[in-house]
Amino acid sequence: MSIEQFIIAWSKDYELGNDFVDSQHKRLFELVNNIGKSCLDGEDINTLSKTLDFLLQYTVQHFSDEESLQIKYDFPEYEYHKKLHEEFEVVVSEKVAEFKETGSTEDLIETVNELIITWLVNHILKEDMKIGEHIKIHNYLLNHIKT
Question: Hey, what CATH class is 17-144 in?
């Protein structure tokens, strides 16, 4: 296996136009890439476990920040989006716990590739883009409609 199979490159296509959220998304990409690289480099289970815990904590914080932004801008799909976040947190938490029990880096690589990378990219491109558009429209209306 080569590292290229497990790297997700950041692209401007993933940018929402909100610097704060975009920087967090970039950091998530880095963390996911680090996990794939660590697996291939044969990192020990304790190191991988700490990296996974940090990814999970960072993801939870990111979701909270993103949800606060949705509330601030009265995003109409807030409840649905929050539910997606909660479901993902549960699945990733289960996979992290499973890894800690089995120590299988093969299963972890599969999880990172099939679950985390796929979910993250699809979520950003499909769901998070809606937030970005909503904020742009909100700001446009705020700046161009006179009361």
Answer: mainly alpha
